């Protein structure tokens, strides 16, 4: 068993820490990269800790919520980040040292870690061993990680697709959207996506196999765009954006339709959320609007990993990533999510040496 | 077989007809009572029509939608009423003449009929025979009719209550709300209701067995009222009103909670619906918001009628009705729904002689 040596080497540890709580759109100045040091061993006395060298940091919209200061009692998916402390999110890494029986030095893992070069993980139940090392490791920040599992659970378990269903996916070229669209195609659905640039719309149609797509920024009337692309209405709307797009989709749902509410990125930076005015449509059309988060579905990870890695190997699911290099690039990559600057899954690659 | 006689008696037939399509709150001047005549036999040549003498007309909020003129292509639960034609809704009546094999003169029925003294029902599939004539016939406009079946389907099938669940019902003393609260108590839930007067709040607690209740008109902060009455949150919100009450309830749902969206009476008279701002809460708390209407559940009517009539006989479900007499009183009774003037199920009794 490793851990606890007195003479462990120390290493530089660059970290992205929160400089101030955020109101409105986040900026690069809300965080800063600071340099610390880390001992390259699990501290003496720890019996179930894992020291991870981070290889890929995942940039995900849900981090925005944790950058705000919430009033006590407000429901949040996870506690607020603390000013002066390192940001936390999913990532991919390599085990350097471990006192946990399930992990040993050299293991490749994904799970919750810090936005830093090395993280001492004291709750290794949030780490998963990477079984398919023949695939790009970075996929475990996306299609094979939290976003992929989110779609798998949300689309299959909450959306319950049937062959021939008309599916609409917003933020469709992003980490979640691109997987949602491709799983919908595998399920035999007709799939339309929306995205925020012509380049992304093109990706949807040519790379990800969407049947149709539109650039929501160049549409005057979102409801009309939906009616044009889905004249018979929507059976499943996989919602990543909320706001005006959700409102337009509600008008256009078919009887018995499902709105799978995965995220509302259009709302995360608003002082007051937009009002959704068309919710009444769910009564005559018996529509189910269901929120979900990946937390409830971690137990299905193994099944998911096997199925999704199979799809990738068969070419049924393809991946587009937007990779920046080095932890100094992380703040801009995170901030860019909220203007849609990323094309595909946004992640940060750290040196592997 | 009856029907078709040349020498059938004619009778006076007073009818409530739409005078003009409605914008905003309906008024008594939007409809008028006109006097016609009716032959007291099914016309010659009809092979499946039923002539009904109406005994009770049901006043239900959903009629408001049909009083508007909707643009083509807008989803509505039922077609707009036509100016100059009789309003249509559920009612209770007695068969006078029938050429339909399942109905004969003297049968007591409930179902879709006109707001008039006699209705020739040409689609008798929307009529149900009344099996429990030992109970007040008027109950078939409420607890044993469409509102009762609505609750039964919505609360049991969509809400899926578990013993110990915390349940909130809005418009709780109305036709639907009073049944929802009592079914929730039978299911072993803790039940809180909101209503629009102290008299109604008193009814909820003393007559219908709600555990707690509040007058939404005298609360400054609906979210605070919910927190006071349901400090541990809401598992099932049975929504009859939409708008601000729905928004407050969304803030206060428990993980895995269900919002059963049955109606949105607060919204029916607005030019533009209120925006619901707290929908994002459904993501971290994995809340299901499901709209439904009774149309999908008519096949469970027999099972429902047996169960509900049993509850009534055992005293487990009690009924409060607000009955006005005579068709001339119908317009005011209908309009009064939207200011909450009614206490309990609003209906109109017509002469039985």
Automatic annotation (TrEMBL), chains A, B:
Gene Ontology molecular-function annotations: 2-alkenal reductase [NAD(P)H] activity
Supply the alphabetized keyword list. Answer: Oxidoreductase
Q: Which Pfam families match?
A: ADH_N_2 (PF16884), ADH_zinc_N (PF00107)
All copies of domain Enoyl reductase (ER), residue ranges: 65-348
Against InterPro entries, the record matches this protein to: ADH-like_C, ADH_N_2, ER, GroES-like_sf, MDR_fam, NAD(P)-bd_dom_sf
Describe the protein's quaternary organization and the partners it interacts with.
Homodimer.
**UniProt name for this protein:** Enoyl reductase (ER) domain-containing protein
